[in-house]
């Protein structure tokens, strides 16, 4: 099998011919912004003309209609779309109506990315932006909690389908809408954090001789990456650090588990395996591999202030620069746009222009999403597999300090 990435022919950042990429207001310099916005508009037109043809019932953020809503909410924030804000909200609202109609069908799921909570959370954000009442939707989300807190072994803890994906929704809404605290209160968030910790502890206790305090499986595999594994679950727990007991939970359960993950880094490349039993160094994706783990390492560095996390993140970033232009295309989950966020994160963390430069180069690579792939994704216009994700990344990088990997990063 051939390589999974295109060779990176861009010159790497070089301190000798340093060019300034960011202006005083921490936006990309005008020439880059203009270029990025031009591509955003072209791709948006392509996306929208294909949306009208779609009769898909997929309501998810990951591959369905609500992912497009999340993209609209991102564009709504951009100054360049200031005069189109009402139109954007109208389009987002008509799409979310369709999503809400479709959440009844199929398997009950509660995560942000693949469950009904993502739809409800986006409806909250839209109504908030339109000055309409959103408490009804907050209550529906709140009323889902008993199912997530139940002892069902059916429900995983990972982000894509599981508990930490539900926890993300609560933390994100709380961050964006101050008075949501009245319905999504601290006790609710605390109970979810406890549940996820308890679940990992119980699994660890069941394994004989386990030295890892928290163990998580998805479909009987201990995944490492952001989508199904440790990186995602531990990352969301760290985002919820205000709800953790420092001594008993943060330092005794979470940190040793992060250190275990840290130790899985391939010494030669800096990448991470996809699951514990898999020793191959193959996937360099947000979902599987260092582009997801790097967010955990970055946040761990901020929380624990240990250089070892930063050094591991820097090593991973060098590898992503070389192996991160993916043949799977320019999406977020397993594509070049998702990998570009790894550099944005390191730029946020270190202020080193090198990482912003690398993110910009990955973004420019995404200017040709149809050429820069060898296979078309099943959902080629979706947020996590397709063009909507590419647009989201191009829009987010315009204000790199405010950029957030969607459905994952909350604060900085
Ligand atoms: Zn993926």
UniProtKB/TrEMBL annotation:
> Where is Zn(2+) bound in this sequence?
287, 333-334
- UniProt-listed SMART domains: LANC_like
Q: What keywords sit in the KW lines?
A: Metal-binding, Zinc
- What CDD domains does this protein map onto? euk_LANCL
Q: Which domain of life is it from?
A: Eukaryota
Question: Which GO cellular component terms, listed alphabetically, does the Swiss-Prot or TrEMBL entry include?
Answer: plasma membrane
GO terms for MF:
metal ion binding
What InterPro entries does the annotation carry?
6hp_glycosidase-like_sf, LANC-like, LanC-like_prot_euk
Record GO biological process: carbohydrate metabolic process; peptide modification
What does the record list as coiled-coil region(s)? Answer: none
- Any one Pfam family here would be LANC_like
Protein family membership: Belongs to the LanC-like protein family.
Name assigned to this protein: Glutathione S-transferase lancl1
- Organism the protein comes from: Dermatophagoides farinae
């Amino acid at each position: 099998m051939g390589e999974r990435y295109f060779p990176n022919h861009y010159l790497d950042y070089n301190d000798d011919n340093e060019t300034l990429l960011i202006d005083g207001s921490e936006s990309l310099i005008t020439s880059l912004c203009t270029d990025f916005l031009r591509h955003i508009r072209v791709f948006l037109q392509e996306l929208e003309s294909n949306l009208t043809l779609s009769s898909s019932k997929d309501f998810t953020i990951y591959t369905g209609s609500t992912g497009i809503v999340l993209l609209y909410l991102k564009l709504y924030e951009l100054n360049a779309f200031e005069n189109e804000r009402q139109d954007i909200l109208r389009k987002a609202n008509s799409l979310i109506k369709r999503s809400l109609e479709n959440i009844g069908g199929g398997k009950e799921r509660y995560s942000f990315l693949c469950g009904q909570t993502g739809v409800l959370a986006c409806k909250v954000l839209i109504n908030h932006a339109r000055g309409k009442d959103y408490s009804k939707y907050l209550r529906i989300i709140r009323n889902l909690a008993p199912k997530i807190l139940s002892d069902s072994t059916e429900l995983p803890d990972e982000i894509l389908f599981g508990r930490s994906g539900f926890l993300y929704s609560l933390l994100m809404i709380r961050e964006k809408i101050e008075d949501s605290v009245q319905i999504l209160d601290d006790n609710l968030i605390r109970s979810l954090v406890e549940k996820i910790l308890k679940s990992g502890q119980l699994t660890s206790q069941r394994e004989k001789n386990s030295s890892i305090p928290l163990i998580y499986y998805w479909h009987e595999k201990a995944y490492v990456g952001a989508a199904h594994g440790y990186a995602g679950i531990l990352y969301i727990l760290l985002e919820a650090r205000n709800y953790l007991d420092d001594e008993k939970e943060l330092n005794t359960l979470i940190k040793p588990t992060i250190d275990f993950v840290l130790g899985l880094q391939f010494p030669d490349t800096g990448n991470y395996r996809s699951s514990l039993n898999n020793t191959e160094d193959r996937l360099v994706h947000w979902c599987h591999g260092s582009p997801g783990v790097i967010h955990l390492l970055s946040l761990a560095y901020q929380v624990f202030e240990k250089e070892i996390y930063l050094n591991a993140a820097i090593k991973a970033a060098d590898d992503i620069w070389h192996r991160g232009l993916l043949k799977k295309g320019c999406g977020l989950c397993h594509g070049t746009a998702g990998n570009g966020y790894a550099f944005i994160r390191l730029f946020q963390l270190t202020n080193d222009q090198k990482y912003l430069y690398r993110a910009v180069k990955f973004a420019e690579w995404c200017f040709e999403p149809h050429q820069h792939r060898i296979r078309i994704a099943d959902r080629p216009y979706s947020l996590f597999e397709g063009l909507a994700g590419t647009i989201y990344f191009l829009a987010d990088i315009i204000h790199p300090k405010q950029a957030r990997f969607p459905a994952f990063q909350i604060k900085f």
